């Protein structure tokens, strides 16, 4: 059985879709280690209270949530994960990953995991993918062992620079990444 880290960042509007994919991966037999950014672990939003999401991910995975930097640090030295998924991955986290900033539990988990040359799968969800975040996405596309869940513009009329991953492609992206391949196409048509 493969052990997959599943890290959530604060794009709260996508949590319902993302949690459906966590359930799909659990149903496929993966051991899922949940990781929640400090904001996703503590913020109550119009998309649900933090306590609701915490209880739900514990119920799905049956595992303790990593939500602090000290808890994330052992991921690398102990080689805890076969792959790590960050979904949703915000523009803030994309920037930190591109520049090697590890000041959150999610970015430290990614850094610790990548030291083992194992796949990191990123599912972007950011309003500025075609603006300020584009340079970070471009940089990450060139990094070894980093793979993207295909993404596209989600509302090009009202939010022309916004892009979101097709979260239903997380399992296929994971399978490809575990074989060292990037699923194609990376940029997809809007839903």
Provide the fold topology.
Blueprint: E1 3-8, H1 15-27, E2 31-36, H2 38-42, H3 50-61, H4 69-72, E3 83-89, H5 91-99, H6 105-114, E4 120-126, H7 134-141, E5 146-148, E6 151-153, E7 163-165, H8 170-178
Parallel strand pairs: 1-2, 1-3, 3-4, 4-5
Antiparallel strand pairs: 4-7, 6-7
Describe this structure in words.
The protein has 191 residues and is α/β, with parallel strands linked by helices. It has 8 helices and 7 strands; from the N terminus they run E-H-E-H-H-H-E-H-H-E-H-E-E-E-H. Strands 1, 2, 3, 4, 5, 6 and 7 form a 7-stranded mixed sheet that branches. The chain is globular. The mean pLDDT is 96.
Helix share, percent: 25-40%
Task: Look at the structure and give the mean pLDDT.
Answer: 96
Distance between the termini: 33 Å
Specify the structural class. Answer: alpha/beta
- Number of E strands: 7
Q: DSSP helix count?
A: 8
